[in-house]
Amino acid sequence: MAKNPSAKQSVLEEKEIPFAYTSKSETLAYIMRKLAALNEGKSIDLDFVSAADVGKFCKLFGFEQNWAAHTINEICKTSKYGPHIAHEGDSRIVLDIIRDMIKRGVFVGTNEQRFDKTILNDFLPKSRTGFQDKPTLGHFWEWRYALQVELEHGRTRGTNVTNNHPLLTALIVMAHLTEDSLYYARLWVMETSGEISKSARQGAGALSDLGAVAKENHTAQCYLAKRLHEKAQMDGVDLPE
User: Fold this and answer.
1) In terms of domains, do 174 and 189 share one?
2) Number of folded domains that form the chain
């Protein structure tokens, strides 16, 4: 039986039609369908990570700039505590996107691990009523730091796997928070401790920066202690006086 050439051409044309990026909900569904197909081992076109598509995504959701067209230092800024953090407005948009996706039940977990719907509660605005009937803690600065950290998987470090896509960057953050809700508070301590060790190894030329790094490391340790105490109070841990 002869193949229908017009049908074949129609399929090819359908594949070549670019995604429109006119609806926020349809855009998120489109990307998550692509990622689900990839997870199932299917061959897919990762068109949504192109610089043009990331730009359309950012424009649709109201980002200040196209993340794929900029470096970490352009997307982030130095905070008064030391490390770079993502811009406030863009960070808020990403947080709201993930929160709304959780509300709609987009994330379901796996057979090995159930998805924790309170995974963002540490970073959402502080509220007694909270999210998913659990209190929210308001550590938005830490969320901004986390986004900056995971932008290292983008186009700046020469090991580009996300092309700075905001959603993919946030999903990497979520993967680490699944391991430990204090992952980024601990990471800040670890990275500054590593900088102190590195300065000591490099000798006199690098020691001029040691004071600033040591101060940041102290701040990071105090912050982690604060977060650990907060968790202990929430869990009702009986601590000695």
Assistant:
1) no
2) 2
Closest CA to 195 of 178, 182, 209: 209
Segment 146-178, tens digit of pLDDT? 999 999 999 887 789 999 999 999 999 999 999
Spatial distance between the Cα atoms of 156 and 54, rounded to a whole number of angstroms = 15
Q: How many CB atoms lie within 10 A of CB 184?
A: 25
148 in the same domain as 40: yes
68 pLDDT higher than 80? yes
Note whether 122 and 139 are within 8 A (CB): yes
pTM, whole model, 2 decimals? 0.89
> Domain check: are 120 and 29 in the same one?
yes
